[in-house]
Amino acid sequence: MTGLYIVGVVLVLALAFGGYRRRTDGRVRGPRPVASDRTQEARLDARSLGAGLGSRATFVQFSSSVCAPCRATHRLLSEFTSAANLGADAPRLAHIDIDAETRLDLVREFGVTRTPTVLVLDPGGAVRQRIVGAPRKPDIEEALQRLAA
Amino acid sequence: MSPTSSAALAGTHDVIDPRGPRFGAVVTSAVLAAALILGPGWGLPLLAVQLLAFAAGALLGVRYQPYGWLFRKLVRPRIGPPTEFEDARPPRFAQAVGLTFAAVGLVGLLAGADAVFYGAIGVALLAALLNALFDFCLGCELYLLGRRVLGAQADQSGPRP
Fold it and tell me: Do B2 and A50 touch (CB under 8 A)?
C-alpha cells in the first residue's frame, strides 16, 4: 500500500509543479535586486559581456549544454534581432548567448538558477527585465514594449 | 571564456529524435511506478531493469538506451521521421540523474532501508513523470545549480575578459 500511496502523491506533485511551470515559464518579470551590491542598479556593459549592446535593447541569454529549450530560445531571439537590425547602420537589438558554465561570475551576480534565463537590457545596459524558462514570441514582444514604455 | 553566439549549443554533437527520450520517459514512469507499487520485494527485478536502462543511457550514450531502441524499432516506423533533431546531451544528463536515484534506491532496498527505497524511487518517478507529461528539462534545472555549488572555489579566481 505504501508504494501505491507514494505513486499517487508523486503524480499529484508532478501535475501541480508541471502545470505551474507551464504557466510561468518564459514570462517577462521585472528586475530583482542584485545579490552582490544592492545599492547599485543592476547593469552590464559591452566590456563584461564581450559584445556590443543594441541601441534599443539587448538580450543576454544564459544557456547550458544540457538544456534543450535553450536552442529554441536562441532561434527565437536570433530571429527578432536579425529582423530588427535589417537595414540598420548600428544594431538596434543585440542578442548575446552566454554559456553559463564559462561565466559563473555573472550567473552568481544575477542570481541565475536555471537555463534558459534571459536578461533584457535597456540601451544603457541596465537590467530591466528577466525571463526565466523558454519564452514564446508574444513574451519577447511584451518585453520590448515594456522597455519602450 | 567569451560569450558565444551559439558555440555552447552548436551541432557538432550527437543528435537524436526528441520523441525518443519522451517515449523513454513514459516507459520509465511505468516501470518505476510498478516497482513502487510492488514494494521492496517484487519491485527489485523491475528496479534492476530500470537501473541498467539508466546506466546504458548515461554511461554509453542515449542511442544505447534500450527504451530508445524500442522507440526506433516499434514506434518511429509508425509515426514517421522527426521534423527536427535535438542535442543528445540534455537527455543523457537526465539519464545520469535517474541512474543516481535508482542506485540510491537499490542500495536502500538491499540494505533493508525501505524508506530510502521509497524516497529515492519516488523522486526518480517525479522526474520521469514531469518529462513524460510536460517535456520537462531536468538538465535546465539542476545542472547550473550543481555547477554553482561545485564551482564555488574556481569561481572566485577568473578575471573578467
Answer: yes
The pair phi, psi for residue B13, each rounded to 5°, is -100, 170
Instruction: Enter the ipTM.
Output: 0.84
Residues 6+ apart with CB under 8 A from A76: A135, A136, A137, A140
Closest CB from B8, B145, B154 relative to A113: B145
For CA atoms B60, B63, B66, B68, the dihedral sign is positive
B139: nearest CB among A66, A71, A103: A66
Domain assignments of chain B as residue spans, ordered by start: 16-148
- Residue from A5, A7, A115 to probe the interface with B (highest B Cβ count within 10 Å): A7
CA distance linking residue B124 with residue A73, whole number of Å: 27
User: Given an 8 Å threshold on Cβ–Cβ distance, is A2 in contact with B7?
Assistant: no
Per-residue pLDDT tens digits of chain B, which is 161 residues long:
333 444 444 446 788 999 999 999 999 999 999 999 999 999 999 999 999 999 999 999 999 999 999 999 999 999 999 988 888 999 999 999 999 999 999 999 999 999 999 999 999 999 999 999 999 988 888 888 887 777 664 544 444 44
pTM value? 0.85
Residues of B in contact with A47 (CB under 8 A): 160
Q: Which helix (H) or strand (E) holds A127?
A: strand A127-132
CA end-to-end distance (rounded Å), chain B: 7
In angstroms, the Cα distances linking A56 to A7, A47, A94, A109, A119 are: 50, 18, 8, 24, 14
Integer CA distances (angstroms), A116 to A26, A147, B128, in order: 9, 20, 21
Record: contact B90-A97, CB cut-off 8 A = no
The two beta strands, A57-63 and A93-99, are: parallel
DSSP assignment letter at B1: -
Task: Choose the closest CB to B38 out of A3, A15, A98.
Answer: A3
